């Protein structure tokens, strides 16, 4: 059982290292806008004008 726990601990540590590496890659490199899809989900990358309707409501 001790051997299995050691193997699982090593797997968790390796996963943590990969997670930190991926986070650093996405946050601190100029490559980030091309790799992440967040910009597409937020609609920031598209510069389209949308039609807006302005309404006013007068209350006495």
TrEMBL record:
InterPro entries hit by this protein: DUF5359
Keywords: Membrane, Transmembrane, Transmembrane helix
Residues annotated as transmembrane: 7-28
The UniProt record lists the keyword Membrane: yes
Pfam family, one: DUF5359
Domain of life: Bacteria
Protein name as catalogued: DUF5359 family protein
